[in-house]
Amino acid sequence: MFENVDLYFILAVAAAYLLGSISPSTILAKAQGKDIKKEGSGNAGTTNTLRVLGKKAAVITLIVDIGKGILAVSLAYLISTPEAAMVSAIAAFCGHVWPVYYGFKGGKGVAVAFGTVLRLNWQLALMMALLLVAVVLVTRMVSVGSLAVGAAFPVCCWFMYREFFWIGLIMALIMIYNHRGNIVRLINHEENKIDLSRLIHKNNE
Question: How far is CA 158 from CA 124, 143, 149, 154, 169, in A?
């Protein structure tokens, strides 16, 4: 897999990490005089952005996080190899989770992971998105949907995109580990549920 590592390969992976490190929720919160890591759950992701900053900021956060995953992998395809694209996927993911710009404290990586996989294998990404939506609609808990995706992702990689299996497994394990606080709250029946009506009504800022 790593036989063709050259300067372009390294540049692609480095660029992916730096792209992944961009945190739209942190930037949007700062513009409002807030620190997203000190508000709500303290996570720099879409769900906490919805709670703290409102729907518009959450949508922007989701789009940018998915977009930077797509862009990171696309750049690797453009300047290097398919192998570089796969490594760039986990580099962007790690940039989001451990961003160099924000003291290596970022989000849980679900949206950016989706963006990278969407560019690598859209059928696999679609399956994961449908699973996430289905579980969230039933449980009204994004964390449960994310954990379900984390558990299913390596299995689906094995059958649908086997060359990505080991990278996908590592991403899934990191994602599940990042939800350890949610797991404790789920066990204690203390996990917050999202208000789905808030996503529908316009007057929610």
Answer: 11, 24, 14, 6, 10
Which residue type occupies 198? Answer: R
pLDDT at 198 over 80: no
Domain boundaries, the chain: 7-200
73 in Cβ contact with 81 (< 8 Å): no
Half-sphere exposure for 26 (CA within 13 Å, toward CB): 17
- In this predicted model, what pLDDT tens digit does every residue of 67-87 receive, in sequence order? 999 999 999 999 999 999 999
Report if pTM > 0.85: yes
Contacts of residue 137, defined as CB under 8 A and 6 or more positions apart, other chains included, come to 196
Asked whether 111 and 23 are in contact (CB, 8 A), the reply is no
Q: What is the DSSP letter of 98?
A: S
The amino acid at 3: E
pLDDT of residue 45: 84
pLDDT at 2: 59
C-alpha 21/C-alpha 25 separation (Å) is 12
Contacts of 60-67 spanning 24+ positions with Cβ under 8 A? 60/24, 60/28, 61/24, 61/25, 61/28, 61/111, 62/111, 64/22, 64/24, 65/24, 65/96, 65/107, 65/111, 65/112, 65/115, 66/111, 66/112, 66/114, 66/115, 66/118, 67/115
